[in-house]
User: What shape does this take?
Amino acid sequence: MLRPGPGVENVANAKIKKSLGMPPEKAYLMEKSQLIPLPVHVPEVYHLEYRVVDSEGYVQVQTNRYSVPEKLVGRKVEVYIFGTPSRSIISTRK
Assistant: This one.
């Protein structure tokens, strides 16, 4: 983790910023009581959809087709889509 040099605390944070109308240190002290801690665990961002495996053993997600085990033909599966279809996970959990 990068740490700011000693000049940051004494110089950069002490200057009045146009966007704030005050030094960042003063703005932080004003807002500090309103801040809440971040959660310990940050969940992954995904979109969950359900698909039925076709007769050829594929699941279609947008314009892509993904092969799945043959034993899942005709069954409903969970599809986790992470940002782009190229990062999709197919799950048989219900």
Observations:
- The mean pLDDT is 83.
- The first strand starts at residue 47 and ends at 52.
- Residues 12 and 75 are 60 Å apart (CA to CA).
